[in-house]
């Protein structure tokens, strides 16, 4: 009898050791690892209200992306109450079609103002540290992640390996961003302030100069290149914008492309950094709603048309053909805008 009890205890202990913890993923999960060698499809989007219909996820799932990048306003929190913010994240996380994407795709991203917690907010938002932890929980960032130990949610991830490597730089344009002032509905330029803060700038400089990835995507919630519209943008801090463009040009980073959200529109912008380096920006903004009162706005850097319809972004990479194929798509996979960019060695 004693031997039987010992055998029972042994089997029970072995079973417990092999069983997954509640809520953990088992080895049968279809989620793609970060270091997968065949990264071909990256999808992205922004401006997603958790309390609105979300019709695009089924079509995003059909793209079978290796990675999904949130580009900010991933929910609309707009609160100083962290319990309220947490509840809104939970609503989005449980959205059925998005849950399917989480189960099959590596999820990453950065915030903008509405998920930061305050419209057009910056460094003086008093709840930014608590808000940062909630965003990282939403992204399933590991408990030991450096993002949980630093001031600001910026980071970079590399996917694939060797000649098929893509590095994604996620810039935090909220946590350290200095104050902006408005006059007659237009932001006044802040010529002395910072967007990224000293530590993040140093991290970005080192990251770009040391990147060995063949493709480098640089993402921010707010637009990088456009200068003329009156809303939030890097150009509101003209010295910071120029510093970033100079850094990209001087770093030698391979095949850089900018990604942004925020605007409730979609467009492609292009600026020539030097004689041999054009820089494209893909703005993708409108998963659940777009600019209702939109009126055409100038953007001297715009390539092609401006999109005012629900859309998501997708990058298909042809490594052998050396082409990055960016598209902004709507329901049923309708292509609104397409931008092909060559991959240089």
Tell me, rounded to a whole number, the average pLDDT. Answer: 90
Termini Cα gap: 71 Å
**N-to-C order of helices and strands:** HEHEHHEHHEEEEHEHEEEEEEE
Considering DSSP H and I runs of 4 or more, what fraction of the residues is helical? 10-25%
**Overall outline:** globular
| Structural category | alpha/beta
In DSSP terms (H or I, runs of 4 or more residues), the helix count works out at 8
What's the arrangement of strands in the largest beta sheet?
4-5-8-9-11-10-12
The amount of beta strand, in percent, is 15-25%
Mind describing the biggest β-sheet? 7 strands, mixed
Number of DSSP E strands = 15
Explain the overall architecture.
- By secondary structure, this protein is an alpha/beta fold.
- Helix content is 25%, strand content 25%.
- The chain is built from 8 helices and 15 strands.
- Strands 4-5-8-9-11-10-12 form a 7-stranded mixed beta sheet. It has a 6-stranded mixed beta sheet with strand order 3-2-1-13-14-15, with helices on one face. A two-stranded antiparallel sheet has the order 6-7.
- It is globular, with a radius of gyration of 21 Å.
- It starts with a helix and ends with a strand.
Give the arrangement of secondary structure elements.
Layout: H1 2-18, E1 41-45, H2 57-62, E2 67-71, H3 82-93, H4 96-104, E3 106-110, H5 113-116, H6 128-138, E4 155-159, E5 166-170, E6 182-183, E7 186-187, H7 198-210, E8 215-220, H8 238-251, E9 256-260, E10 266-274, E11 277-284, E12 302-307, E13 312-318, E14 323-329, E15 335-342
Parallel strand pairs: 1-2, 2-3, 5-8, 8-9, 9-11
Antiparallel strand pairs: 1-13, 4-5, 6-7, 10-11, 10-12, 13-14, 14-15
Helix pairs in contact: 3-6, 7-8
């Amino acid at each position: 009898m004693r031997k039987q009890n010992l055998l029972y205890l042994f089997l029970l202990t072995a079973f417990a050791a092999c069983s997954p913890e509640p809520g953990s993923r088992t080895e049968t999960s279809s989620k793609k690892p970060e270091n997968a060698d065949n990264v071909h499809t990256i999808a992205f989007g922004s401006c997603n209200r958790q309390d609105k219909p979300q019709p695009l996820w089924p079509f995003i799932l059909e793209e079978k992306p290796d990675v999904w990048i949130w580009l900010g306003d991933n929910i609309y929190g707009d609160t100083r109450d962290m319990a309220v913010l947490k509840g809104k994240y939970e609503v989005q996380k449980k959205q059925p079609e998005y849950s399917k994407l989480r189960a099959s795709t590596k999820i990453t991203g950065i915030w903008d103002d509405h998920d930061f917690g305050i419209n057009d907010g910056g460094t003086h938002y008093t709840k930014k540290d608590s808000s940062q932890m909630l965003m990282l929980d939403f992204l399933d960032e590991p408990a030991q992640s450096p993002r949980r130990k630093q001031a600001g949610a910026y980071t970079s991830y590399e996917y694939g390996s060797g000649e098929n490597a893509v590095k994604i730089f996620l810039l935090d344009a909220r946590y350290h961003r200095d104050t902006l002032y408005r006059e007659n509905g237009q932001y006044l330029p802040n010529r002395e302030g910072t967007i990224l803060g000293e530590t993040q700038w140093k991290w970005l400089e080192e990251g770009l100069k040391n990147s060995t990835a063949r493709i480098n995507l640089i993402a921010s919630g707010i637009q990088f290149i456009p200068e003329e519209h009156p809303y939030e943008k890097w150009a509101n801090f003209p010295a910071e914008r120029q510093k970033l463009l100079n850094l990209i040009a001087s770093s030698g980073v391979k095949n850089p492309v900018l990604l942004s959200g925020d605007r409730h529109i979609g467009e492609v912008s292009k600026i020539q950094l030097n004689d041999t380096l054009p820089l494209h920006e893909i703005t993708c903004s409108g998963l659940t709603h777009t600019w209702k009162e939109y009126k055409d706005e100038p953007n001297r850097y715009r390539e092609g048309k401006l999109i005012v319809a629900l859309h998501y972004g997708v990058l298909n990479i042809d490594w052998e053909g050396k082409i990055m194929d960016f598209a902004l798509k709507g329901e049923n996979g309708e292509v609104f805008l397409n931008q092909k960019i060559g991959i240089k060695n």
